[in-house]
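User: tokens in, sequence out, please.
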């Protein structure tokens, strides 16, 4: 391949608009960067839409993430492009109640495709990382394509696992089957996350 002119152009101006995305997602011990920021950054770059300039996770306690803000620099922040970013995040399983808006304010675009299921189990039944990993894997297998595991956290004598999927009732039904079939998990309880 031949290049005719490799000199930088001095008469080019790139305008970037700052955009804020809020995801009300529970991640537990999982990393917000790995779960959402990095995959979004790759897709924005591939589409020529912009970059992720920052990722802030909100925590109740260490390793107990309850929300994420992503900061974007977009080359075109028109409503159709913001809606495109929302669809990209929906592909990444963004939860209901997520929003995107210009950083300077304005009306948010609300989006999301998944509901949250919180599964609580006495910590004595999941005392170490191996047992937590086995339970998460068993739940993921039971959920098949119904949901995605987002992490866990230990709270007040319980280990709480977070799953997201398109149909809460279906996820709860699948997890209930697993709980009924394994006496070790019978004390577990599942509830919808707001």
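Assistant: Sequence out:
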């Amino acid at each position: 391949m031949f290049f005719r002119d490799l000199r930088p152009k001095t008469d080019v101006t790139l305008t970037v608009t700052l955009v804020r995305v809020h995801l009300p997602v529970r991640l537990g011990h999982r990393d917000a960067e790995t779960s959402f920021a990095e995959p979004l950054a790759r897709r924005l770059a591939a589409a020529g839409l912009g970059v992720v300039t920052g990722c802030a996770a909100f925590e109740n306690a260490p390793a107990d993430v309850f929300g994420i803000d992503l900061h974007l620099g977009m080359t075109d922040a028109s409503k159709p492009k913001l809606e495109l970013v929302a669809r990209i995040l929906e592909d990444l399983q963004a939860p209901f109640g997520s929003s995107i808006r210009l950083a300077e304010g304005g009306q948010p675009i609300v989006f999301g495709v998944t509901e949250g299921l919180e599964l609580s189990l006495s910590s004595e039944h999941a005392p170490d990382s191996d047992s937590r990993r086995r339970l998460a894997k068993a739940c993921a297998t039971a959920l098949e394509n119904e949901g995605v595991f987002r992490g866990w956290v230990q709270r007040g004598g319980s280990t709480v696992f977070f799953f997201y999927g398109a149909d809460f009732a279906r996820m709860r039904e699948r997890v209930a089957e697993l709980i009924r079939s394994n006496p070790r998990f019978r004390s577990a309880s599942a509830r919808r996350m707001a």
